[in-house]
Amino acid sequence: MKTILHKADTRGHANHGWLNSFHSFSFANYYNPDRMNFGVLRVLNDDTVAAGQGFGVHPHNNMEIVSIPLEGDLEHRDSMGNKAVIKSGDVQVMSAGTGITHSEYNYSAEKPVKFLQIWLLPERQNVSPRYDQITLNEEQLQNTFYQVLSPHEGDQGVWVHQRAWFHIGHLQKDVAQAYAFKEEANGLYVFVLEGSVEVAGHALGRRDGLGIWETAELTFKALENTKLLLMEVPMQLP
Predict the structure, then answer these.
(1) Claim to verify: residue 150 and residue 38 sit in the same structural domain
(2) What's the CA gap between 227 and 116, in Å, rounded?
(3) Looking at the domain assignment, is residue 5 inside a domain?
(4) Are 209 and 145 found together in one domain?
(5) Which structural domain range is residue 24 located in?
(6) Do residues 109 and 194 both lie within one domain?
């Protein structure tokens, strides 16, 4: 088993006033040659957008983009004609493929919105752009790892053009939960949303990240009530 630890306070940071963003991997003006990616996981941004503010219309191509709101509401519009407000408990995916433009704004004029912006390198280039979102039930996440993303259309959760699986789990204190890898060549990037957990010999706290590979199964033990995002991704770049 191999691991790489990214403590929360080692992340890149940019505060633009309207946007306060922490970068687990190199992004925009934050560049660290040792923190470019974890396999095909290229971007993991922990963003807080001020009330009434947001990202204006901008382009993307050949990237699988996943947004997970943590607090508040985020309004999405894109060149495919989609208009939606995603909230805490939702998972949104957009395959940029041959090219799209979109905007993301805080839907509230009073409260900030907090969300994760995640980019995966796709296994195929120039696919047709697409959009999807789901809403999770809190009960589905209790003391288990609930699948929210996979490579398979029609499977549980949203799907992407990559051999990736995401799970979210809300573990109560002292609960132990196993995770079995879907594919042998994949790695798992663990991101602690809230609380603390022990896994692979590491004690992780809020917003810590841990990459794990060359193993088939892991056991997580919650040290307190804990919320986790697990991102299993290919380690081989396309």
Answers:
(1) no
(2) 14
(3) no
(4) yes
(5) 11-135
(6) no
* DSSP helix/strand/coil, 8: helix
Query: Which residues is 78 bridged to in the sheet?
Result: 102
* In a shared domain, residues 85 and 99: yes
Q: In what order do the strands lie in the sheet with 202-204?
A: 176-180, 217-222, 197-199, 202-204
Mean pLDDT of all residues in the chain? 97
Amino acid at 144: T
Write down which residue in 135, 159, 191 finishes a domain.
Answer: 135
User: Over the stretch 185-236, which tens digit does the pLDDT of each residue have?
Assistant: 999 999 999 999 999 999 999 999 999 999 999 999 999 999 999 999 999 9
Same domain, 77 and 112: yes
Longest dimension (CA), the chain: 47
Out of 135, 164, 189, a domain closes at: 135
- Predicted structure pTM score: 0.97
Q: What does the pLDDT look like over 91-130, one tens digit per residue?
A: 999 999 999 999 999 999 999 999 999 999 999 999 999 9
Residue 133 in tokens: 């979102």
Q: Rounded to 5 degrees, what angle do the CA atoms 121, 6, 179 make? A: 70
Alpha-carbon distances, residue 232 vs 18, 70, 92, 148, 174 (angstroms):
32, 20, 17, 12, 24
- Tell me the two tokens of residue 83: 């208009």
The full DSSP string for 174-203 is T-EEEEE-SSTTEEEEEEEEES-EEETTEE
* Strands, sheet with 2-6, edge to edge from the N-terminal-most edge strand: 2-6, 209-213, 186-194, 226-234, 165-171, 146-150, 158-159
Are 146 and 206 found together in one domain?
yes
